[in-house]
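User: I'm curious whether this sequence folds into something compact or stays loose and floppy. Could you predict its structure so I can see for myself?
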Amino acid sequence: MRRLPWILLFAALAGMLAAIYIHAGKGAAMKEEQKNSGYCSFSNEELKSKLTPEQYRIVRENGTEKPFDNQYWNNKHPGIYVDIISGEPLFSSTDKFDSKTGWPSFMRPLRPGAVTSKEDNSLGMKRNEVRSKNTDLHLGHVFDDGPQPANLRYCINSAALRFVPVEKLAEEGLGRYLYLFPMEAQQLGYREATFAGGCFWGMQAYFKKVKGVLSTRVGYTGGKAVNPSYEQVCSGDSGHAEAVDVIFDPKQVSYSRLLEHFWGMHNPTSLNKQGGDSGSQYRAAVYYHNAEQKKQAEESKLALEKSGKYKKPIVTEITQAGKFYQAEEYHQDYLDKNPGGYCHINLENAK
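Assistant: Here's the prediction. I'll summarize afterward.
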């Protein structure tokens, strides 16, 4: 019986050590997660050196700028609004609306998880504060008096943002968002191409390496279901194929060259199967956007058939592009987020 207190003391010490170990592990895991997500933290001194006094007051001291007397409240130019410090894309002009409040107002963030919100009881009122996820800077507040369907109004301080006009997106590495501005992209001389050739993770990773490709996104097309989910597409019931949508600069890479890449990255004699994946959602297809693309696609297919490279018939479809439904965020740039992930394509051939 005399040993019982020592046993209890030992157990307590073991519990404390385990708690410390778990806490340290969680802290390390959190730091790693923050690193992978682009999280960046700045000291007050660093922020003061990077920002104007007004910007610092707003993003670090949770201030609010004057209504109708700030940089972006009346900005109507198309483009993307990014974090003033990290350059992380936060909001799009396609979601901006005139709330009559004198501050930039948006219906939604540009991407799920780009911002966070928490309850704010300052100034004697209950509000939901909005902060940037990766820098934890104060942006503004979100209210439930916005337009339908979500009825949200993200009321954001101009001083917390930097605006990148659509004509500068590719230059600043934000070409991925050119799809939001199809009319402006056309005016800039850019063109769109859509291909399906098996798992879209590898297809996107390949086309991103091709010089002249400004924007890539993966999604679903060629079916009948409206706003399909990944699970619906995988079931085969939606009729859609996994595909990649590309915005390219024809001054740097021609559509015919993109077709050459496409024919080389998949097996055109394999029906509903590429690599280790099988099912109608993995069928291969060229989805043309105009008569010239159709002509070039058919000519390139015919030339491949006549080349004798394949003994079996070429079954890759050539069909008119329809509605393209962007896939869930975790599928976008998947192999960038998960190096070494599954890929049925030889990425070394992308030039």
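Summary: The longest helix spans residues 4-37. The chain has nine helices and 17 strands.
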